[in-house]
Amino acid sequence: MMRPIQMVDTKTQYQKIKTEVDQAVLDVLGSSAFINGKPVQEFAANLSTYNGARHTIPCANGTDALQIAMMALGLQPGDEVITPSFTYIATTEVIALLRLTPVFVEVDARSFCMDPVALEKAITPRTKAIVPVHLYGHAAPMEEIMQIAARHQLYVIEDNAQAIGCDYTFSDGTKKKTGSIGHIGTTSFYPSKNLGAYGDGGAIFTNNDELAAQIKMIANHGQSRQYYHDVVGCNSRLDTIQAAILDIKLKHLDDYILARRAAADYYDAAFAGHPVITTPYRADYSRHVFHQYTLQLNPGNDPATFRDGLKAFLAEQGIPAMIYYPVPGHQQKMFAHFDVAAQEMPVTDWLTQRVISLPIHTELDEEQLRFISEKVQEYCNRQ
Ligand SMILES: *Cc1c(COP(=O)(O)O)cnc(C)c1O
C-alpha cells in the first residue's frame, strides 16, 4: 500500500537519523547547557563554512533574523525598504513593525523573485534598503540587485528562509550561496524549511565584521559586555538542543537538496508540454533547492476557481496541496494605511490566482510522485 502523502514528511526523515539525533539531544540534557551551550557555536561555525559567510549569528527564528538585520543597519522610522509583495508575511511585517515604510515591487512572472527593473523604478531619496526573497528555493537575481544597490548606495538583506544551500552563479562564473551575497542574509530553521529544526530557530549571515558585532549585540539585549547595554536590542537565541539537532541535519543538507531536486525533476517530466500547466522556471544563475514545487495553472478563464478546484480534487484523493500565498502583501489589511495598498500589481495578482504548490520533501517515493502527477493531469486534462 502507498504511504500517505504529506506536504512535508519530517517524521520519516527523522527516523533515518534518529540514533544520532537522540544521542545529541541526550548529551545536551546531560550537560544542562540549554542556552549558549557548545553546540550553538559549533553549529554556527559549521554553517559559516557551508555557506561561505564570514559570520553566522544564530537567533530564535527567521522573523527575528529579519528584524535584527534591519535594526543593525540603523534604519530610521520613515526610511523606505523595498521588498516583493509576493512573499511570506514575515518579510514585510518586520519593516512595518520597525516603523519603516514598506515599498512593494513586482516579481518576475517566471522566477517568482524580485524584478530588478521594478526595483530600480521604486527607488526614491528615502530608500535605504532592499530585501529580495529567494522564494520557493529559487534565487533572486542577486548580481543585478547588488549592482543597483551599489549605484544607489543601498543595503541589501537577503531573505534566505526558503533557499538555504542554493548556489548562485555570477556572470564571471564565480559561485556563492544565497544568503552570503548581500550585506546581510537571514534564514529560518522552522521545521518544514529545507534545514529544519525540531522547533523554532533562525540565523543571520554577514561578511562585515562591524555589522556582525552590531547584530550580536542587538540579538542579546543590546549588550556590549555583561550588564552594559549600549543600544535597544531584543532577546533572540537559538537554544542548544535545536543547535545540536541542526548540526547533524546540516551534514545531510546537500543530500536533502538532491532528493528535493529529484522529486522536482520527476514532476517536470510528467507535466512537460501540458497546455494548462507551467512548471517552475530554473534560471541559469540559480541552482533551485525546491523548498516548494509551485505550478502556475493557465486555464482559459477563471484561473483561481480552476486552481482551487484542483486543490479540492487532490484533497479528495488524499493529496495535500497549498496556495503560497493566497493574499499578497499589498492586499493585506495590516498594510491598509500604507501607500502600497492602493498600488496596482498585475504580475503579483496574476500569480496569486494561478499558483499551487505540490508536496515536495526528502521522503517522496516514486509511487507517490506518480500518483500525484497522474491526479494533477487527470484534473487539468478536463480543461
Ligand atoms: C519561514 C519564512 C520566514 C520566517 O521564518 P520563521 O522562522 O517562521 O520566523 C521569513 N521569510 C520567509 C520567506 C519564510 O518562508
Explain what you see:
The chain has 383 residues and is of the alpha/beta class. The chain folds into 2 domains: 10-247, Type I PLP-dependent aspartate aminotransferase-like (Major domain) (Aspartate Aminotransferase, domain 2), CATH 3.40.640.10; 253-380, Aspartate Aminotransferase, domain 1 (Alpha-Beta Complex). It is 40% helix and 15% strand. The chain contains 11 helices and 14 strands. The strands form 4 sheets. The chain has a 7-stranded mixed sheet with strand order 1-9-8-5-4-2-3, with helices on both faces. Strand 4, helix 6 and strand 5 (155-159) form a beta-alpha-beta unit. Helix 2 (38-51) packs parallel to helix 8. The mean pLDDT is 97. Pyridoxal-5'-phosphate is lined by residues 61-63, 87-88, 90-91, 133, 159, 161-162, 188, 190, 200, 202.
Question: Could you give the topology of this structure?
Answer:
Elements: H1 10-31, H2 38-51, E1 55-59, H3 62-72, E2 80-84, H4 89-97, E3 101-105, H5 116-122, E4 127-130, H6 142-152, E5 155-159, E6 167-169, E7 175-177, E8 184-188, E9 202-206, H7 209-219, E10 223-225, E11 228-229, H8 240-271, E12 277-278, E13 293-297, H9 303-316, H10 346-354, E14 355-358, H11 366-380
Parallel strand pairs: 2-3, 2-4, 4-5, 5-8
Antiparallel strand pairs: 1-9, 6-7, 8-9, 10-11, 12-13, 13-14
Helix pairs in contact: 1-8, 2-8, 3-4, 3-7, 8-11
Bound molecules: pyridoxal-5'-phosphate.
